Amino acid sequence: MLHLMQYLRLPLPEDIAKAKDAGDFDRALKLTDIRLCDPAQSEAMKKRLLLEKEILSRLPGEYPYSEEEALALIQKEIPDFTQEELDAWMDRGDADWFMVNGKRHLQDRFFDSMKKVYPSLAKRAGEEPASSDLLDENISSMKENGSAAWKIHLRHTLRIKDEAFEKGKVLVHLPIPAECQNMSDIHILKTEPQDVYIAPSNSESRTVSWSVNLTENSPFAVEYEYLSTVNYSNPDPSEAVIRTYEIEEAVPELVITPLIRALAEELAGEETNPLLKARRFYDFVTERVTYSFMREYITLGHIGDYCASRLRGDCGVQALLFIELCRCAGIPAKWQSGKYVTPEYTCNHDWAMFYIEPWGWLFADCSFGGSAYRAGAKERHDFYFGNLDPFRMAANNALMKEFTPPKQHWRIDPYDNQSGEAEYEHRGLRHDELISECEVIEMKKVR
CA-based Rg of the chain, rounded to a whole angstrom? Predict the structure, then answer.
């Protein structure tokens, strides 16, 4: 199904777009089916409509809360929170909403997103801000020693929820570390079941996979260890090689739109030094884009445009905007993602890499840089332009790459893979039908 994603660039027929924007999803689906049966439609538009059917099937579930339900949800933790406050949050774009059947509904994680970004709101809810001690200690250590390396041992388990379980053949993929600049000495220690396919170590989206007949609802698990190594970089702009690369668009995931081109030109101005241009792009994303949890990426349209126009985005949306700005300016840039790992927990995370001579590939983590900027932590903000901490598991070194063996149905996330995927022969399973858990077995600093 990944081949259909390139048709996301095509506009929808006006009546379907009107129904979708009004939140009349049943009508939008009905009109889509009518257009698909019309022999006058071009093959390209039919493929765009097939893609839209998948988007329309996912979009309503992303916005489960009416305004009344959203306010009640907040008031469980902040009793004095008012409707006027909620209106203000929505008007500023900090509480994501969409029309559903003619009424505003709020995104599934809107409140968690607000608390994550605004400490004053988290404090009203009785929550303490997350500590940055581990990151700050690592920055000091890397500056002193020139690098950091951690041996990390993880266990990732995927289970189908009982209500979604069916006897029969199932194909399951779980992400594992891929050999790359910051991942080495990778060992697959254990798999359950044992009969498993392990993708080559240089796969751009590396997984272990099972294709088995299930008679009972058993979990799938992989246990692995690896060495995460990063070198400290403090590039001097005066040493940068002034060079512009001819970079082709990567359809559909990295398309340079008019908005991206205009923004890149505005930010770069008369600057010719690629390192300084990349820093201007980083500063825009980290200082002017506010972190926000996102609905499913497939429903966002062109992600770079979404971020540049709305000035909101999570780690992946921010990384994509930075990558597209760099590529538009002739600076090679690419995607990396997997997990952020600490001794206490793991979470999905995305970041970017960009290429500047004579240093080669450098890292940029815009969401970590953005949180540092909001906290007034200048040293940490500067660090995440050109550097990365070692608390990572990188499974994906490119966007929208097919698995081995490939899936036959729509992926939960066509862009990336961090939590795992599963499908029956007749349909793919959705994220709310699976339980994905990643456990830290051991983390040990090597240097």
Answer: 22
Q: Which two structure tokens, joined as six digits, stand for 90?
A: 């929505």
CATH number at residue 363: 3.10.620.30
Assigned token pair, 299: 């429903």
- The 10 Å Cβ neighbour count of residue 99 is 15
Pairing of strands 103-106, 65-66: antiparallel
The residues that bridge with 333 in the sheet, in sequence order, are 354
pLDDT in tens, 294-351: 999 999 999 999 999 999 999 999 999 999 999 999 999 999 999 999 999 999 999 9
Closest CA to 418 of 342, 337, 352, 303: 337
- Residues contacting 374, CB < 8 A, separation 6+: 117
Beta strand 312-313 with 290-291: parallel, antiparallel or unpaired?
parallel
Confidence of residue 258 (pLDDT cuts 50, 70, 90): very high
Whole-angstrom Cα distance, residue 404 to residue 208? 9
pTM of the model: 0.97
Phi and psi at 370, nearest 5°, equal -65, -40
**175 and 202 inside one domain:** yes
Indicate the burial class of 310 (C-beta count within 10 angstroms; 0-12, 13-18, 19 or more).
middle
Are residues 179 and 150 part of one domain? yes
- CB neighbours of 199 closer than 8 A, spacing ≥ 6? 176, 206, 207, 208, 209, 403, 404
Residues 73 and 89 in one domain: yes
Tell me which residue of 366, 361, 340, 389 sits closest to 230, measured CA to CA. Answer: 389
The answer to whether residue 184 sits within a structural domain is: yes
List the domain range (segments joined by +) for residue 110.
Answer: 65-124
Say if 219 falls within a structural domain: yes
**Cis, bond preceding 119 (omega within 30 deg of 0):** no
| C-beta atoms surrounding 112 within 10 Å | 12
Q: Are 415 and 253 in contact (CB under 8 A)?
A: yes
Question: What does the alpha-carbon distance between residue 409 and residue 421 come to, in Å, rounded to a whole number?
Answer: 10
- Paired tokens of 335: 């995607």
Which token pair is 242? Answer: 């002034």
Asked whether residue 359 falls in the same domain as residue 243, the answer is yes
What pLDDT score was predicted for residue 129? 86
Q: How far apart are CA 329 and CA 109, in angstroms?
A: 34
Distance (Å, whole) CA 41 – CA 249: 27
Query: Helix 315-328 crosses helix 258-268 at what angle (to 10 degrees)?
Result: 70
